[in-house]
Amino acid sequence: MATEGGGKEMNEIKTQFTTREGPYKLLPHSEYSRPNRVPFNSQGSNPVRVSFVNLNDQSGNGDRLCFNVGRELYFYIYKGVRKGLLSSQNQASSPGGTVV
After folding, report:
1. Is residue 72 part of a domain?
2. Residue 34, Cβ neighbours under 10 Å: how many?
3. How many domains does the chain have?
4. Structural domain boundaries, residue 88
5. pTM of the entire structure?
6. What is the DSSP string of 58-77?
7. pLDDT tens-digit profile of 8-47?
């Protein structure tokens, strides 16, 4: 959306927009997470595109992981990689001992 100077607001997260693939809109969590969802097309599996986005917000929680599945866009707050609670025996065989 435009600011008073006529420029675009860079920190705004849009809730709906249109691309060459079609329209996108923000759905409530209860609607996009229901298990009986019907896919947009049944021509086979859609490609999944993954993006990592940083919004540079002041709270330090600006990292987002975005998944584009067909015409649907999902984004999640990324909180980083956390060290798992592994025993010393499992840490030797684990690649770095990290859990994502």
Report:
1. yes
2. 8
3. 1
4. 16-99
5. 0.37
6. TTS--EEEEEEETTEEEEEE
7. 666 777 788 888 878 888 777 766 666 665 555 555 677 8
